[in-house]
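Have a close read of the entry that follows and walk me through the local backbone shapes. See right below:
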Amino acid sequence: MLAVQQLEAGYGESVILRQVTLQVRPGQVVCLLGRNGVGKTTLMKSIMGVLKARKGTVTYKGADLTKRAPGERAKKGIGYVPQGREIFPQLTVFENVLLGLEACKEKKRAIPESAIAKFPVLPSMYDRRGGDLSGGQQQQLAFARALASEPELLLLDEPCEGIQPSIVDDIRDVIRSIKAGGETAILLAEQSLEFVKSVGDYFYILEKGSIAWEGGLSDLNDEVIRHYLTV
């Protein structure tokens, strides 16, 4: 479904990603691991088109998206929950979710029930401003906004960062339910090893902007964790 080949990207004169190659198959939950500052968010931004690739390609369902704008990628079926959530603080919760419909391939006026059903607390907050919500509530809102377009690929960048344990559990349940449905693949960048091991099918570890290791859950042993992830 998603194929990243020899991707290079960075900011200004700095090169952050070097020859990154990975893939996500339909229905898979693929997890991106690595210490702080290794390029996980840069990779997510590059896949979404927020940051332009300097070299390499990003292919989605056989189509080369490397030079496509973020909006075009969204309409192809890629949803994105960025690090820091990036909800619109002055808009209401309802308006924030409604904006997710802009990424639909076909014009839709109604928010899909499936996007809201996973976060049943949100409808009771529809009239509140997004900026008035707690961090955990904002994360649920960002998640629902991305799901409103019913994407076939969902990019999740540090969805558990700074979130209370109860909402982390809710997000885990949502990812598992999406995985069980088999219609949406997920690329998840996350620091919590316990969390990714509870939801992931396949794992990549970034180190100094390059893929240093990849493998399945059974391969992610103590030696790998100690070598690449222990601070």
User: Anything to note?
Assistant: The two ends are 33 Å apart (CA to CA). Strands lie at 2-11, 14-24, 29-33, 55-60, 63-64, 78-81, 153-157, 185-189, 202-207, 210-216. The domain at 26-53+67-200 is CATH 3.40.50.300 (Rossmann fold). The chain has a mean pLDDT of 93.
